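Hey,

Quick one before I head out. I ran the complex with FE2/S2 (inorganic) cluster overnight. Inputs first:
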Amino acid sequence: MNQKIRNLEINPNHWYVVARSCEIKTQPVGVILWNQPIVLFRDNDGKIHALEDRCPHRQVKLSHGKIIKDSLECAYHGWQFNPRGECVEIPYLAENQKLPNCQIRNYPVQELDGFIWLFPGEHSTEIKPEIKPLGIPEWENLNYIATVSLIHCQAHYSFLIENLMDMYHGHLHQDWQAWTDAVLEKIDEHPHRVDAEYQAQSYYKIDKIWSISQLFFPALRQLHPEPLAVSYIYPHWVSTLGKDFKIYCLFCPVSLTETKAYLIHFTSLHSFWRLHKLPIPFRRFLKNKLFGSAQKLLDGLVQQDVKMIEEEQQAYQNNPEQKGYEFNRTLASVQRLIQHQASLS
Ligand code: FES
Ligand SMILES: [Fe+2]
């Protein structure tokens, strides 16, 4: 394993996820993406904007301020900045004084499928059309029940993506994992993605109305083979287990040693064809009502993974030269992809 990977930058010319939509309400919110403090806020129409989180007057954080009409007002002296980052108001400006030309950086940002996607690349005016936010079509789809868990770990993002691509670590989760006995069958490697296919034994089958009780009564689970696919679609991750489950991990790398990410778990209701004939408002009600039904499970898995990932980071910091041993070929592909993307930044 190449340990230099733990010091690699991100390729900023992609869309990263910096928050959930529901986290940005009527107050500005400060986030950090790869060492860059950014303030997110909504204008009067609810449209989201992102600016550098720094008042050019005295360098304090604009995220302490508040929103006045479509502008962001600094908490300290009340200077106001429009969504382009231009100073548009200084409350104590004398008649013979002019507004300073002190524009701060604004970031391309969009709200899509329940999340806020931000493009931190330098050449924001020329985002290539093929570079798009990953998108989560299941988010609005009435046939999918979602659960979201926040991953926050003190580790380089490569440790997290390696954990997510290495299905041999199901061992860690024991009874909590939805599958067991993964066997790697195929890897596809491209400059912007790695797809790995495993064959696994799944514990859950979502085909009866009482299927959910398998979560609580292990005796109801029956092992059966299902394909388990994982993809690193730089910089994010997607996985499917058979037809019943889909999981996304949306990355917000904070720094070389800190990573935030959103794990979104979907259970499919495609087997319940009777349900699909019910009125849409009822189906929407059901989808909302069942939101978060895998919360305990997902949070538990995340906690176990974070512990391992942080320990790997610690061990690396204590002895960066220490070599490990690896039998899963997927991880070498993942590291090549990280290296390639970092070289483009
Ligand atoms: S520091 Fe922001 S207005 Fe003075
Ligand atoms: Fe895990």
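Residues 55, 57-58, 60, 74, 76-77, 79 surround FE2/S2 (inorganic) cluster (ligand 1) (CB under 6 Å).

Talk tomorrow,
K.
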